[in-house]
Fold these 2 entries.
Entry 1:
Amino acid sequence: MNDSKSGSSGWWQRLSGGLRRTSSSLGGALGDLVTKRKLDAATLEDIEDALIRADLGIAVAARIAEAVAAGRYDKEISADEARAVFAAEIEKVLEPVARPLVIDAGKKPFVILVVGVNGSGKTTTIGKLAARFRAEGRSVMLAAGDTFRAAAIDQLKIWGERTGSPVIARAPGADAAGLVFDAIAAARSEGSDVLLVDTAGRLQNRAELMGELEKVVRVIGKADPSAPHAVLLVLDATVGQNALAQVEAFARTAGVTGLAMTKLDGTARGGILVAIADKFRLPVHFVGVGEGIEDLQPFAARDFARAIAGLE
């Protein structure tokens, strides 16, 4: 079970602060709806609508409205009570998917393929993960597999310098699959514990780009039949409902094993993570609420549920 306010109180402050737009929109709506109103059918319908608008998904919204009403129908409920019920129900959805990204020391290098659409924060997430793994005492290598954008290659090199991680890179336009194959060989010969592979940001509805990603996955399997050992999909919380389509497409193409959701501080749509957890049941490894290295942390269900409900 994840304890509330796990880790440092500094992270709790950043998480609850980062999710303020979501919690203001959600908690505020819940508070307004139940204040001085009895929990009749009309109020419950309004609560459900507010939860759906917050991107929580129809199924989750219906369950929460039902939980708020349980034993209280035709009675008044305080805003704090409603928020506490809301947080508890959200935690129930999130608890099964709040699982850490475990590095198997027996697989060397442990290959993590990082995928997602353009602008989701993939390269920055890789840099932050490299910093985390290095702090844990692991040796890390980075592969600049986003060969389409010179800026992505440069950005990864900066993270490599910052975290003391060698970077395997080629000129922009080079074959990504070939680069990744070479990176696995280099990581193996250097005895690296972890190889983080960046990929070109691709729209999930562009067949030819998804085909290239399939090729990268195939080539990794040729270099090491047990790899990739993890496929991390980075999602940008600000895209809301579109994230559902991204999970579906990348899961089909690259065999996603876990999720990281970034930019939760830039949106009132943080509830989308709940809808994704409910629909796909994929492990959520990390959440990000800012640009700093410390702003990407392991996902804790209770912390997140309390933060989006606006509870202290």
Note: Residues 1-6 have pLDDT under 50 and may be disordered.
Entry 2:
Amino acid sequence: MWIVWLLVLLGFPSAVQAHDETKPDRPTLTVSETGMMTQAPDTAYVTFGLDSPGKVLAEAQRRNSAAMSNVMDRLRELQIDKERIQTSSFTISPQYRPPAKRSADAPPAPPEIVGYIVNNMVTVEIRALDKVGTVIEEVLNAGANSFQGLHWGLRDEQSVRLSALKQAAAKAREKAAVLSEALHVKLVRIVSVNEGGHMLRPPAPVARMAMDRGAGEVPISPGEMKVEASVTLVYEIAPN
């Protein structure tokens, strides 16, 4: 009796494994498509900075604060709300005296600080796009000495991306229907869905254009932004 039970217990797992190995895989059909929507940007982001040197830290900070105060006043005159102005970075960099030439056996001299540079970077969000060139020109005239660049954005990017996603899904379903008809199979159900996408921004104007203060207002053209979305559908299929 015990021998019979032992044989049953030992044989049961192998029976289950044999059943799983003979289970057929379900055939699938995978299709991928991309949707694209174009939209004119409605926001510009301008980043500029102030580099202020000084022999002592307090001097560099005082110069930087005074220059930045002038820039902020100019932005307020241009009707830029304070909520649209953000400090993106603030750094203090010590400046060291170049090492003097010493003999090979002399010990290295300790570094000597001879001054400081205070750098204050600010990003301005501009919603009136016809003011972008004026803002760049006026900020530089007010004392900013570093222009880091300009990029465009959409305040309601999500709705544009959803439209591109809807377009991609419709194209993927249409492709699956055409393939199933050509292959003489039927689409049983969708097994999985994967989505992705990104925004293609128009190129920003070259930064050195804004540094030429004698050239008048900087010409700015926002162009169009492209929002892409991709969809991959996996269908279970069966003979038609």
Note: The CA atoms of residues 2 and 150 lie 83 Å apart.
